[in-house]
Amino acid sequence: MYIGVDLGGTNIAVGLVDEDGKIVHKGEAPTGVGRPFDEIIKDMAHLIKRVIAESNYKLEDVKAIGIGSPGLPDDEKGIIVFANNLDWHNVPIRAELSKYFDLPIRIENDGNTAGLAEAVAGACKGVDNSITITLGTGIGSGIIINGKPYSGSHSIGAELGHIIVEVDGIQCTCGNKGCWERYASATALIREGKKAAQDNPDSMIYKSVEGNLDKITAKTVIDAAKEGDATALELFDKYVYYLAMGIITIINSFDPSIIAIGGGVAKAGDFLLDALKKKVDEHIFYKDVPYAKITRAELGNDAGIIGAAMLGRLI
Ligand SMILES: [Zn+2]
User: Chain centroid to CA 64: how far?
Assistant: First the structure.
């Protein structure tokens, strides 16, 4: 058995996971950002103990603990170099958690843990090379090469959301301009939806929120596009175009067997995937050679716990 910790800015989720990536039991506690680091780790340790105690297993059954963290974790040093939404800089997470458990502890970026989860137990099961893309507030990404998460020589790779798709484009939180996530995340779809609704009060986007633009979500826009609303369709097509350009860059760089798409926007299902596949097909470099299968990620919110736990299987 393995423990997987999905460390987030709002909650810490912990799961006891078996060899095949199946969650046996899980629990959650507030992260309580702003408190001293050692207090948060103490809560994490208690949550791990509680999850094990509530299951039919014992601590002796656990082979390792894996942690999926936002920001930039450095597994070699056992530290989190920085995590903006936790306000952490160079925190010795492995050393601190080791005060409570005499077990191997692995840390990995949460995009990569989501990718590992899909590779072991989800949409990318059975292939060696896969990439999982999460379309949410930003764009998360997990690169799995030969069954292992890849984040480069300095742990700063696997940030596909920051591929630049528009030179001197929209300002990104990373300091650059024109990053993929400024154009192809849920946030981008909402931003463009608000703009379009404001300019087109006759559109279904505007009408479905009764003019209250703050209520516009990615779903508002996609639902209107599904209904054939011209304004929504126009911006959906543009969204898909940007999404496809990033996917093509990924195919050109990595040529994975599968690209799994997750996150809130992926709930649009085949409506999004079919449009995306069509656009990728139009613009792909090699026309006569097979390329990555594009499919929906399968594990949803559990991917964080499962992927973190599966880090233990790689030891
Ligand atoms: Zn960026």
Answer: 23
Q: 108 CA distance to ligand 1 centroid (A)?
A: 20
- pLDDT for the residue 242: 98
Q: Mean pLDDT by 10-residue block, N- to C-terminus, for the chain (315 residues)?
A: 96 97 98 95 98 97 97 94 90 98 96 97 98 95 96 88 96 95 97 96 96 96 97 97 98 97 95 98 92 97 97 92
Residues 6+ apart with CB under 8 A from 85: 8, 9, 33, 70, 71
Q: From the CA of 156, how far away is ligand 1's center (Å)?
A: 13
265 C-alpha to ligand 1 centroid (Å): 19
DSSP secondary structure string, 260-299?
A: EEESGGGGGTHHHHHHHHHHHHHH-S-SSS---EEEE-S-
d(CA 75, CA 93): 10
pLDDT at 58: 97
**Confidence at residue 157, expressed as pLDDT on a 0 to 100 scale:** 84
* Residue 2 CA to ligand 1 centre (angstroms): 34
pLDDT number for residue 287: 85
Helix (H, G, I), strand (E, B) or coil at 230: helix
Contact call for residues 115 and 307 (beta carbons, < 8 A): yes
- The domains found in the chain, sorted by start residue, are 2-109+302-314 (3.30.420.40), 123-298 (3.30.420.40)
Task: Check residue 209 and report its DSSP letter.
Answer: T
- Whole-angstrom CA distances from 244 to 55, 87, 188, 213, 238 are 43, 33, 14, 27, 10
Q: Kindly give, in sequence order, each residue whose CB lies less than 8 Å from that of residue 288, ignoring residues fewer than 6 positions away.
A: none
Residue 103 C-alpha to ligand 1 middle, in angstroms?
A: 36
Beta bridge partners of 282: none
CA–CA separation, 161 and 118 (whole Å) = 18
Q: How far is the CA of 219 from the centre of ligand 1 (A)?
A: 24
